[in-house]
Specification:
58% helix; two-stranded parallel ribbon; 2% strand; 434 Repressor (Amino-terminal Domain); elongated
């Protein structure tokens, strides 16, 4: 969460710094320091501010990236962020989209419906903290998976006519391009050797470029996505 996001959210509520400070139980001077980015926003306070000021999900503090989101947790997190395909899920507290993207991507058994949902997330929240997501992907050698998803998201944003999203996704795609791995990657570790052989021969150019075994394409996704 940045100081400008905090200031914008406060003003949208019509609150003075003093009024916000009273609700947070801190001093007006401390709020002023946060808004001027002279003090970092602590995680616990950031979560409270995100709820109190109804800030966008991208302003929610990023939590731990150490654990993957299992199927149920991932579908709930994506539903809470607005993914229509999981609208039946009971909503919980919001996680930062960058955190949801990376922690779901870490799963060794990523269902196809979750892969599609992550492409939707990348388009819908194209202003997420890509620097953090790219950095985490490089640390855990997930840049090929993330690069493939970002490429599909960029193509989908182009189809939908969202130039700002295209620009942000292109920047992320270029950042991942320089660290592309030669090692083959999959979304499901349990894939049989027969499935792997078939996909090596039939995968689309985007999957071949990122050395990921999948037949998913942006045109296929575009038929089912809204917006």
């Amino acid at each position: 969460m940045t100081g400008s996001e905090l200031r914008t959210g406060r003003k949208a509520r019509g609150w003075t710094q003093t009024a916000l400070a009273e609700r947070l139980g801190v001093s007006q001077g401390y709020v002023c320091l946060l808004e001027r980015a002279q003090r970092p926003v602590p995680t616990a306070l950031g979560l409270k501010l995100a709820r109190l000021l109804n800030l966008p999900a991208t302003a929610v503090p990023v939590g731990s990236a150490s654990t993957a989101l299992a199927d149920e947790a991932a579908t709930t997190a994506l539903a809470t962020l607005g993914y229509p395909g999981f609208a039946y899920r009971r909503l919980r507290h919001r996680l930062n989209p960058a955190e949801v993207l990376f922690r779901t991507l870490k799963s060794p058994e990523l269902d196809a419906r979750l892969v599609e949902a992550l492409v939707w997330l990348a388009v819908t929240y194209a202003d997420l903290n890509w620097a953090w997501a790219v950095r985490q992907a490089k640390v855990e050698d997930l840049q090929n998976r993330l690069g493939f998803l970002v490429t599909l998201a960029r193509q989908l944003a182009e189809q939908k006519g969202h130039p700002e999203a295209v620009a942000a996704l292109t920047t992320a795609e270029q950042a991942l391009e320089y660290s592309r791995l030669q090692r083959e990657d999959v979304f499901r570790a349990s894939m049989t050797e027969a499935e792997r052989r078939w996909l090596r021969e039939h995968r689309p150019p985007e999957a071949m470029r990122w050395n990921v075994l999948t037949n998913l394409t942006a045109s296929e996704l575009g038929r089912g996505f809204e917006g």
